[in-house]
Design goal:
The protein has 61 residues and is mostly helical. Helix content is 41%, strand content 7%. The radius of gyration is 15 Å and the shape is elongated.
Length: 61
Amino acid sequence: GAGVFAAAQVVESPGKLLGLDAAAEDVAANWEEISDLTEAKPLGMGFEQSAKFFALHNLKR
């Protein structure tokens, strides 16, 4: 309002694969990397997040 205009964008960090057995302590221990938005990217569509997660799993193989 008041003649001010802005844009908003939702971005997501690259993420970190901790595995299916990850516990809260694992998330806490890796939080700095998990929450680092240096290389964050916008997700234009919902499937982009799923594709990113599949790519992380494929890198582990």
